[in-house]
Amino acid sequence: MKLFRILPILLAAMLLFSACGRNEAEKVSAPSEEDTITIVTSFYPMYIFTKNIAKDIEGIKVLNMAEPKTGCLHDYQMTPADMKKVEKAEIMVINGAGLESFIEKVIKERPQLKIVEASKGLEMLEGEGHHHGSEHDLEDIHEEDTEHKEHEDHEHDHSVNPHIWVSISGAIDEVKNIGEQLAVADPSNAQKYRSNTDEYVKRLEDQREKMYSALKTISNRNIVTFHEAFPYFAKEFDLNIIEVIETEEGSTPSAGELANKIRKIKESNVKALFTESQNLTSLVQTVSKEVGIKVYELDPIVTGPVEPQLDAYEKAMDENLKVLLEALK
Questions:
Q1: Under a CB-based contact definition with an 8 Å cutoff, are residues 327 and 274 in contact?
Q2: Equal CATH topology for 33-120+130-210 and 217-298
Q3: Do 293 and 249 meet the contact criterion of CB atoms below 8 Å apart?
Q4: DSSP class of residue 126?
Q5: What is the pLDDT at residue 34?
Q6: Of 31-35, 193-197, 216-220, 267-271, where does the model show the most confidence?
Q7: What is the pTM of this model?
Q8: CA distance 138 to 240
Q9: Of 211, 216, 227, which is closest to residue 300 (Cα–Cα)?
């Protein structure tokens, strides 16, 4: 009889210890909010790169700030929703090179925020219409003790073209930069950031080699682009940009300037006019009609889905390759 009385007590104790064991396991497997490091990225390409670099690292959360349909961040004004995302983060990944003109505001609001700059130390092409300009060293503006001030000094630097990521080689350099700076900012996960970076760089190198091989037999490489997103891409694949229709985004050329551009294009045996889907304007159609060349869309990889796949960059480049082969055949 005593056994029957003791048995329910033993069963209850076993259930209690079992539940405690499950709770302890759950605590170990699920990091608390305090243990999570949040990384916010400025816009779509930085989001793709950072998601690959931080892939499968426990306790790391990656958010994208600007809406994925925003496009390039020229003169972008932050929204309250953007600032809320930034306020959640310990680290922010930006392209740099003057693209994020709002960065001074971010730093003033969040002076403790660690800034990871993808373009840090990379060679730049000249901007504001100088799409065949010479390369020059970008001043290293990320000394730890002066990083806030130097962003103020460089935020309006339009002497360089910031669209480095549109070239695969540029994307590789930016990925390496992001990976190394994250490893320094979060040393407890440094090895994982670096191994993910190496893995992603290898995929991008394979993509670059595939495109080199496919495009090497093209003879006429003269093209026109709608705006200045493609100089790095053109340099990578030996394309000759004869003219840029809109040398500053949102700034329509005057009638005289447009007439000169059309004349130059007619004299240059250009194969195609390349634009982005968001820039299929009446101006593009006017130039196409006047010159007698077809319009094709290239993707500068500034927009995409809210949650892109890890291979989103490679897939966009595959589509660009198809377009180039069709346009320049």
A1: yes
A2: yes
A3: no
A4: B
A5: 64
A6: 193-197
A7: 0.81
A8: 24
A9: 227
